[in-house]
Structure formats: structure tokens, C-alpha cells
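REQUEST FORM: STRUCTURE PREDICTION
Request ID: SP-0412
Submitted by: Lab K.M.
Chain count: 1
Length (residues): 319
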Amino acid sequence: MNQAREHILTRLALSQKPVSGDILADELGLSRAGVWKHIQMLKKSGAGIQAYAGKGYMLKSEVFSAGLLQAKLNAGRINWNSQVVNETGSTNQDIMQQAEAGAAEGLVIFANQQSGGKGRLGRRWHTVPESLAGSVLLRPELPPEQVPQLSLMTAVALHDALSRYAPDIRIKWPNDLLCHGAKVAGILTEMRAEPGRVHAVVLGFGINLKAPEEGWPADITQAVTDVETVSYQRVSKLEIATAVLDALDQWYDIYLTDGFAPVRTAWWQAHAASGGKVRVHQGDGYVEGIATALDDDGALLLQTPSGVQRIIAGDLELL
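STATUS: Completed
RESULT:
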């Protein structure tokens, strides 16, 4: 977004009273006519800005912008650098490109629409206007084999953030969050590494905030739901994005300070099938057993009639 319009939106959103055109003009180094032109552009893009004669402008509807997100985030381990784009191919790809160009840890990109969003195993991830789709760049000093732990950490962070709205949300191995058996969020982790060293990790996630007015895309075959439906309340994209990033910051700090053990404990407590019977589809066959533990590398341990099996890939079905 244009920097001047970003400033205007942030300034209005953080003010409890009208902000005069003169003040905005001084802050931006523009004329009042220049400010007025930016206001008109913001209105055309959907921002609910109202003018009050002799007083200035007020924002009457919520907006989701990088400036507001930065203003709401708590200071922590990660120095967030937020970007919000209207449309892109994939926020994971965008983050990885910037990582390869030298971007620092903490870069986060949210997109209102993605034309090439993807999920695990190359599946398509639908980014409807009513969802929160974003990716985060981390640069941990880890060996590549430990990166799957960060995906599990992300699931715990999303669980913590979304449980404030719906306590029944649970984690489903390996990368989904469910509520009453229906998918509400998904995670895709990617990395750039060399033997023994990770260069960049991208944590991508998509959260269904509310059901699309025209209904869910026809090619979605699994049960899906959204935060508004399961929480019985209207939700704010800005508030949920803030909650997710704050939770990621907290759990990343825990992980780097105390290791994987606290993450694994929290993940297991939030898992939908801990101690329960599951079936994992693997290619043309499946493995059925009791989910007994989570291994350090993210493998799910199943107690089967033939003994304990490590499941490192597949689609899990709750029985």
C-alpha cells in the first residue's frame, strides 16, 4: 500500500476523535488537497472514512493494514516487520524470495488473496476473502532435521491464539487445526538449508475466519468450518493476526530457551487423537492403531498389533 495512505489509515484507526486534514498534511509533508486525494483513494478501496466539517476525518470501519498490526504487536523476541498485500501468488514464495535476498528474521506477509496458495503434498489452499493467510520468516540456528519441530510449534501457537475464541479447537497431526472434526486452519512449513545448517524457515498458515457468502469452494472435499461459526461471534482479522504473531513470538522464545520438550507437551495436550484410535492413509494402504506419543522429529507413534510404528507422513483419520 502507498506509504501515505498507510499512514493515514493507521493514524485514524489509533485515534478516538477526528484527525484534522492540517495535522495529516503536516505529518506527511503534503497539502490538504493531497491528503484529500489519498482519503478518496482509501474510500474507493473500501475504507469507511467519514469527514466532519471543521474537525477532520474518522475511521468508521476496521481495516487490516501493516501499520495497525505493527502498532498492536507486543515487543518480544522477534522484531516483526509486517507487510499486507491485497493479492499475490503465494505468501510462502514471497517470503522465500525476500529471504534469499537477505531479509531478516521476523518478516511477515499477509495477503487478502492468493492465486497460488498451497497446502501439504502440493494440494491447493483456497484463500477466500474471509480468511487470514500469511507467512513468517525465521532464521534459527538449527540442523535441518529439527525444522519439523517448528511446524509443531506453529500448531501450538495457532491453537493458543484461536482457543481464545473457541476452546474446542484441537490440533490434528501433522498440520491441521480442527473444531468438532472440521478443519479451521492449516500450516505449511518450508525451508532453505545445506547439510548441517538452516538458512531460512518459512512458516505459512491459513485460518478460516468466516464462511464465504457464496459458500465454500466446490472442490473442498473435507469438512471445513471457520472461527466465527465455532465461536458464535464476529471476529476481527486484525485481532486474530495480532494474537497469532504474539503467540508465535512467545512459543519461539520458549523453544529457543527450553528446547522442544515444552512444545511437545503442549502439542500432545492439544492433539485431537492423543491416546485415541486413528487410521493413517499412506499411498494405497493404511496403518491403524492408538496414538501413543509424538517423537522429537514430529513423527507420530502408533501402537499397532505388530508393535509401535513411527508415522512420518500420511493423512490421519480420527476413529
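NOTES: DSSP finds nine helices and 14 strands in the chain.
Reviewed by: T.R.
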